[in-house]
Amino acid sequence: MENIGNKTKVGKIIYLSEDGWGFISSKEIPFTRIFFHWTSLVQETLHFTELIKGMEVEFIPVENEDKGFRAIKIHVLESEVKDDGTTIN
What we know:
Number of helices: 0
CATH superfamily: Nucleic acid-binding proteins
């Protein structure tokens, strides 16, 4: 696994499974879905069950040769949630 320069990136949650994993998309890593598991959320942020598609997150991407990118140390950035459950960033 290769850490991309230990630099945090910003992206948005694009998919959430019922099993505790999802995908993030980031303009800083174009054309890539970045996998994450609920265990990669930092303790001070929201719980996985509180996440909503479209929320903006900060994370550290780690590249695995065989599987692509994985997000670690994920922190949810401040978001407003509208009445319909979508977010405003």
